[in-house]
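Page 42, continued from yesterday. The earlier attempt failed because a stray header line got pasted into the input along with the sequence. Redoing it now with the clean sequence only.
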Amino acid sequence: MSEIDTLEVESVGEPATGASEGDASPEAPANDANSAKFSVMSVETVTFDLTDPSPVVHLMEAAPPFRYLAIPLALGAATAMHQAIGGVDGRRPGTHELLGEVFRRTQIDVIAARIVRYEGGVFFGQLDLMTPRGREVFDCRTSDAITIAMRQNVPAPVLCAEEVLAALYD
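This time it went through. Structure tokens are written below.
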């Protein structure tokens, strides 16, 4: 793998936590080590299959061995992500469009959307931001992190922790 396709990322402070389903709990930190290895993932597509109970986002590792993730989404999250990937704006700003505009106006850059953990069939995400006051990392739903990353003028990278890929492929 090239240096650009695999990243070593240092943990920065304590990430913010929420209580929503799919968010990391305070008792289970997303990364126990000071740094973790991440692979760059490309967002391939969002599929809506009427025979499947959930739409799915398909991610592919950007470098060999080209591991693949299929992450089930809620219908609203899948619609928002599909529109973000296609660069389609709604008639009125959706939550992700609004947050993207807030970030632009307040000079906050999205460094990356990260998939940091897989537990009990649930993928856990983080949004890594650079603010005027410094770097901030927020726990969030993986679908929100990816959609917000795709809504940037220059889409932010989607990163997946090596431990998540290893758990699914080893």
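Notes: The first helix runs from residue 75 to 86.
Reminder to self: strip header lines before submitting.
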